[in-house]
Amino acid sequence: MTLGEKYPYINQDCYTLDINSKKILDEITKLNQQGDLSSDYIKSLYGYKTANKMAYDGKNCQNVIEYRRLNENAEIITKDAVKQEKSVLDKFKKEQNIYIGVGALVLLVGLFIVIRK
User: Fold this and answer.
1) What whole-number distance in Å separates Cα of residue 116 and Cα of residue 110?
2) Which of 31, 41, 71, 79 has the most CB atoms less than 10 A away?
3) What pLDDT digit, counting tens, does each position of 80-111 carry?
4) pTM
């Protein structure tokens, strides 16, 4: 498998480019830890890292990814807020029904007292 097949950067979406950048950096780091700094393979990896970075920057991927993450976070927060609001409303709805029942009972007792006199 060639580097171009392993780390494609032409006609790729921002997430693929981001993942490829991380994979290339991980591979370079692993090879550097092994002490193999002068091989043509590492030089090729640096070339693909640069090409991937240019494609990433050319598509404004940082803003695209940030925008998607913000939207996903906003959606999650909104869903959680709706759940919390429903749970609070259900609790207060039960209390409200209890108060209505107690009020009706007091009204009936008062009416009964007035009628008996």
Assistant:
1) 10
2) 31
3) 988 888 887 777 888 888 999 999 999 999 99
4) 0.58
**Sign of the Cα pseudo-torsion (88, 90, 93, 98, in order):** negative
Instruction: List CB contacts of 62: < 8 A, sequence separation 6 or more.
Output: 56
CA distances from 37 to 2, 20, 30, 49 (A): 19, 21, 10, 15
* DSSP code for 88: H
**Within 10 Å of residue 84's Cβ, how many Cβ atoms?**
10
Contact (CB, 8 A) for 9 and 61: no
Three-class secondary structure of residue 45 per DSSP: helix
Angle 23-26-27 from CA coordinates, rounded to 5°: 85
Altogether, the residues listed in the chain come to a count of: 117
Dist. CA 92–CA 84, nearest whole Å: 12
| Angstrom distance (rounded) from CA 67 to CA 17 | 16
